[in-house]
Amino acid sequence: MSNLLEINNVVKNYGDFRALNNVSIHIPKGSVYGLLGPNGAGKTSLIRIINQITMPDKGTIFLDGEPLSPKHTADIGYLPEERGLYKSMKVGEQALYLAQLKGLSKFEAKKRLKYWFEKFDISAWWNKKIEELSKGMAQKVQFIVTVLHQPKLLIFDEPFSGFDPINAQLIAQEILKLRDEGATIIFSTHRMESVEEMCDEIALINKSNKILDGKLDDIKREFRTNTFQVGVHTSNAKEVESQLKEKFEVFPPDFKLLGNELTLSVKLGRQDSANDLLAFLTNRGEVQHFVELIPSANDIFIQAVNKNN
Amino acid sequence: MSKLKLIIEREFIAKVRNKSFIVMTFLSPLIMVGMGFLVYFLMKKNNEKVKEIVYIDNSGLFSKEDFKDSKTVHYLDFTSKGIEDTKKKVEQGNYYGALIIPKQDSLELLAKSIEFYSKDSPGMSVMNALENKIETKIRNQKLNDFGIDINKINASRIQSDIKMYNFSGEESSKLINGLKIGVGAIAGYFLMMFVMIYGTSVMRSVIEEKTSRIIEVIVSSVKPFQLMLGKIIGNASAGLLQFFIWGILIFILGTLATSLLGINMAEMQTANLSAEQLEAAKNVAGGDKMQVLIQEVLRLPLLKLFVLFIFYFLGGYMLYSSLFAAVGAAVDNETDTQQFMLPIMFPLILGVYVGFATVINDPHGPISVAFSHIPLTSSIVMLMRVPFGVTWTELAISMSLLLVTFMFMVWLAAKIYRVGILMYGKKPTYKDLYKWLKYKG
């Protein structure tokens, strides 16, 4: 799969402050790419560079094989974290205006807006002013405006903020649908559960540097600690626990089971395999629960950032 | 280019649809014409009231002829009633005042000892008229004493009218000079008002985009510079439309009101002049003088004036409004703008002051010339000077200075604008603005 966006060695300074330090990111076509990092890490700086709102001091950027240039603004849709609309302008008018700024003809923009307004069941808002709408309603309009010109690259910065769970779900589905239709999506958020749900690949930026990137599954594999959650029915729980402790590293459980079985987290040594542990347990009781502890995006985030700091 | 057009269109429509804009556009001329007529009627009412002045002439010098009634002042001879009685009558009655002319040995003494009593302090024009009457009478009396024939003196009065030429052979007159002052002053003042009203409107529009947070979406589609330019042009178009409507409405309303209410425009202008002044005015603005004036206006280089007006008007407006846009971009809300507004307002106001103080007296003096070259004031001061004839060399220098400064300022403002629109929170200092200038891209 070829890359839609290639960012190579980008450096951006604001006065004496370096916001991005030699950041390289490659985003495959048709993927949802999570751009993660703590507040102030440099995510917004990078997104603004991709949108050509600011220019990098050093480095190169290619969109679909071509050096990024002003004509590409029509190929990118951007929903910023800090977003708004003209308060005293009518919903339909400003949607048309913003769509035309992205290069759509008035006729085409009207046609597509009609489709999306009907899809989201908001046609009645066309002649309302934004100040008459709730925040969630305004967000829907913004989402439509972002995707309306069918850009190759969509950038969503915290797209779910301000939405209730039902509308957040609706937006998430639309984003995945857009990907399935061929769009490439950059997704920046602090909500790690939505990263798990949506992202194919991620990059983690901390203190102006990219500290991690790749396929989410690969990263998880890399971050796994060979730890298993186990639950065993046994008449002699204490005995089993002390025997386990002699062979493996054992921690108190960080999970709950419904019964009153012995629950523990067990970390295997390098030479041990899961089968060794399973054989050990089946000899001593009835195994109720046996799951490898796969690090969540949240764990990876915290672990990687803490290590980097 | 089409994006710029879209932005201009949006700014224009947003501005024109604004309720306060509509109200201002249609209400202002009504208020202005209404105020004008209110003042006129009040003045007329004031003048319609006949003032009765009583006089006691113990000198025997004055006759009924000297105290002829005018439209607004009637004179009553109370000489026979005695001073004390007259004073009492004036104090209790409705008389405007009492003029008391005592008997004196010499005319000099008489001139200094005439008294006027009234309940309230008398108006300037009434006192001037009285003093005028007395001075004329006493002067004539003295001339008579010297054995000089007054008729001869009157016959010897002559009015000189120096015809003024410049070396290219153009004839000019004091009247046309007055007209030039008028044209220049109106143009300069108009520019200042326009910059203040629509410059701040550009600034407000920038702040609105910042506070509503739509700015980031917009600048991901268009260059900040395009957005700034679009705003400046859009607001100016709305402003020109407003001024145009004002002009038409004031003309229509004024004509309608004068014809409906039967007001004589000439009377309106001269309502507060005394009869003597009126007489003088009539002499000056005689029929053939008017024709000369029209001829002279037509002889002015009208096309040149028009082209220069457009140039300086656009140059001045663009220069200032780009600075206003930068200020709007630098702050989050309007209350924070003040510290940055002062340095912008200062040259603007200075330009108008210099214009009114020096250009009118001496359009080609060193101060006028200097300020018509300094770019921040040149658009106003040069606009005022242009009707008096400015050499092409001077114009070329001033125009190129304005052009260069304009481009520099727009570049500077665009840099501040580009960074400022994405900055929130802390109110920036001048030091911050300087730092922003050094940011790349």
Q: In words, what does this structure look like?
A:
The complex is a heterodimer of chains A (309) and B (441). The longest helix of chain A is centred in the middle third of the chain and has 16 residues, at 165-180. Chain A is built from ten helices and 14 strands. The two termini of chain A are 34 Å apart. Chain A is elongated and about 75 Å long. Chain A has helices at 43-50, 91-101, 106-119, 135-147, 165-180, 192-198, 216-223, 237-247, 274-282, 297-308; strands at 3-14, 17-28, 32-36, 58-63, 66-67, 76-79, 153-157, 184-188, 201-206, 209-215, 227-233, 249-251, 262-267, 286-292. With 309 residues, chain A is an alpha/beta fold. In chain A, the strands form three sheets. Chain A has a six-stranded mixed β-sheet, with helices on both faces. In chain A, strands 2-1-4-5 form a four-stranded antiparallel β-sheet, covered by helices on one side. In chain B, strands 2-1-3-4 form a four-stranded mixed β-sheet, covered by helices on one side. In chain B, strands 5-6 form a two-stranded antiparallel sheet. The radius of gyration of chain B is 31 Å and the shape is elongated. Chain B is mainly alpha-helical. The interface between A and B is medium-sized, with 33 and 26 residues.
Question: Which properties best describe this structure?
Answer:
A: 309 residues, alpha/beta, six-stranded mixed sheet, four-stranded antiparallel sheet, 28% strand, B: 441 residues, mainly alpha, two-stranded antiparallel sheet, 18 helices, 70% helix, elongated
Brief digest:
Chain A has 309 residues and is of the alpha/beta class. Chain A contains 10 helices and 14 strands. Chain A starts with a strand and ends with a helix.
